[in-house]
Amino acid sequence: MAYHPPKSILEVLQKIEYEEALPVGDPRYVDTQEARGSEQTFSVLARKFVWDPATNAFFAPNDKHVLFFGHIGSGKTTELRRYMGKFDKSKRFYVVEVDVLAKLDRNNLQYSEVLMAMAESLLERLVADGHTLADDALDPVRNWFTRAETTNSVSREASAEIKAGASAKGGIPGLINLFASFTAAFKTGASQKTEWRQQIRNRFTTLAAAFNGLIRGAEEALRQSGRAERIIFLIDGTDKMRGEDTQQFFVLDAEQLLAIQTFAIYTAPLHLKYDGRLGGKLDADMVLPMIKLQTRDGEPWPPGWSALRELLLLRADRSVFEPGTAGDAQIDRLVEHSGGHPRELLRLLRLCCEMANTYIDAGVVDRAVKQLASDYRRFLKPADYTLLVEIDRQPAHGGNDERAQELLYRLALLEYNDGAWRRSHPAVRTLDGYALAAKASQTPLPG
Length: 447
What we know:
Layout: H1 9-15, H2 33-36, H3 41-48, E1 51-52, E2 57-58, E3 64-70, H4 76-89, E4 93-99, H5 100-103, H6 111-128, H7 135-149, H8 156-168, H9 171-188, H10 190-202, H11 204-224, E5 230-236, H12 243-252, H13 254-258, E6 263-269, E7 283-287, H14 302-313, H15 324-338, H16 342-355, H17 362-377, H18 382-393, H19 402-409, E8 413-416, E9 421-424, H20 432-439
Parallel strand pairs: 3-6, 3-7, 4-5, 5-6
Antiparallel strand pairs: 1-2, 8-9
């Protein structure tokens, strides 16, 4: 059935989902490579895993853990799913997507539960695709939990979960039940979460060895069936962790992540790239550029405008907007005030739908932009406005301090062209605080 954008303001409002990453084949997908200036991103990512998509030549490294940076809501997962579709079709890779937001508690997340979610997701996909594994690949993981169950530090409730999961079904289904019980406990059970984190830390070496054995066994089964040579995990949602959890996961616990001998791609928040403490342990080169509406010199960038207009009109039919050229102008104003950030464009569209009566006109857009700007006003400090004005006057990347990292994280500051230049969020530039900071300076702002 052909896709048609919703024509009712209420239906548009109902279907706006900020956390939604589009699956491969979704008719709302817009190709943004030229708009971002990211035409080489896929080929560079493929080379990280020593694979040539053009010839399908593959010289597999032993393991590879890659961070994929970008502003939160900039479309990282949507783009990665398309990249991973190409990986999967090559028959060189078997892609396993791990949605940590669905399986785990994003507000209190550590490597221990992510490993459990990785194992659960791998087994779920193997079963769904009709693959089986020999007991010698499954036994080390099952035995690790059985030995944990005999220790005095494991509660009766957790011990019962292990016994139930291990005995409910044999083979892969039994392990899926076991891992599912743990990911559920990690999401909702505070006392069990603390208990199992300690267990995993105390006996991590044997758990890592068991998990690596499970991966090797799965890869051997995939090779024998002609399906793939290596497993690659797409770990999604790790860019949305709290600040301290981000540091713990990617910096302090990097050695534990690297102990798992596999291929993995983690979505990561852009500000982490400037933290300075990654230390080269994880491969931290990949950045998904933002969609740009202008060049660094202020010249319009037509591919960016075109892509965001298309993105908007795939979520709201043109009839939702004021008729004629006036409506076209309002579409452009929404695109302009998004700063090229897809989620910010959806936020503006949602605000318009909440305020509009018959259709979205100039007055509705005015109120939506003011509402979005007020969200930024609530946390910006006078010094932030001064910093943003300075950056706008000299957008070339001149380095970051802790405050600039925070502004990047909260989207008051947007970055383009793999970090070559930056500019403040357009909605921020409508605020009185920004105008006062600009007036206090001598040099005129760029157009």
